[in-house]
Amino acid sequence: MVTTMIMQRMSVAMEYGVILKWLKKEGDIVKQGEPIVEIFGEKNEFELEAPADGVLLKILCEVDDEIPISEPIAYIGEKGEKVPDAMPIKLNKDAVTTTAAATITPSVSIPATKVAARTTVPSVETRLPGGKIKASPRAKKKAKEMGVDLSFIVGTGPEGRIVEKDVLAAETVPQVAVSDERKVKQVAPLAPLRRTIARRMTQSAQNPHITMITEIDMTEVVELRTEINEQVEKKYGIRVSFNDIIVKAVADTLDRFPKFNATLMGNDLVMFDEVNIGVAMATDDGLIVPTIKGANRKSITEIALETKDFGKRAKTNELKPEELSGSTFTVSNLGPFNVDLFIPVINPPETAILALGQINKKPVVIDDKIVIRSMMMASCAVDHRVLDGAPAGQFLAALKETLENPFMMKI
Prior knowledge:
Helix content is 23%, strand content 27%. By secondary structure, the protein is α+β, with helices and mostly antiparallel strands. The protein folds into 3 domains: 3-77, CATH 2.40.50.100; 103-187, Irregular (Dihydrolipoamide Transferase); 207-408, Chloramphenicol acetyltransferase-like domain (Chloramphenicol Acetyltransferase, 2-Layer Sandwich). Helix 5 packs across helix 6 and helix 5 (242-254) packs across helix 7. The termini are far apart.
């Protein structure tokens, strides 16, 4: 009996997997539970194991192919058994096809072609389980008439369904007139992590954002951090960062603002009991977001120990799937990179994200006197479908109050 090996979902947010390396070749004998292929899914690498004993009869996809969840990737069975004809749906890896070292000559007009659909990538809602595309009959008919591939269209209809207007919008790309000669130095394919980020940000950009900005006096936090580190460094050999204290303050504030600790599912806003803070971390390949689970129940020291561990293992790609999923709110801090202020993009399916800049000493007016204080800019982007400017302002005000009076937080 032939057993189908499928692309497995290794985390809640995983939509597809990228084939990194086949550990076995066709004709090899395999044992159930034996690693067969290395994949990349939702910002981390994993090994998929053989679902049964037998011979690896056929490999259906190549290295670097992007395969949706539940699609077949290989067949295992007895030697000589006939395998099904079914092949997996493969997602497009390239938004634009470019030839390496190509030269664009002066005053060349590039004709319109039916490739605009490949410049957008479907969100998870566009596909049904098994990879079937959700599209209206009129959309399917129009796509067939125009020769447009539905696989690369983002649906704007109910629950992500592709409708006729989506197909019409993807029919052509405009003519481009190039008046200068540009020689291509190098073509670098996006790494799997970068592709995941591109898809998630495309999904996020479809939803309306509004952003609130405030300035927070961090002078008391600076003093608190000094006091904490006198104890923590001796006991644990680590130093608490400003971000660790901020994560704790955010978690405590979210307890009072449940709509910020939520996700939109259809017409329902699902608010979570547990506050799981995603902490954005930069790696050589791109941004990853490990999750501090139950941050509202942890002390600053516990959060610091966890983030330091995440940081070490992120560099060696040793983070587990469950550590990279399940966040309910994200904190992104570019202060260490000398950034004063930036506007963040929400990490779907969350409803809000907090962005932080560097802490700078500057003159401020307090009680009609000019004094030097340690100040930080903060911005909070929210999903405008479920949150308005007033609650966003109230959330920032509450966070500001907590950080400006931080000594009540659990150390």
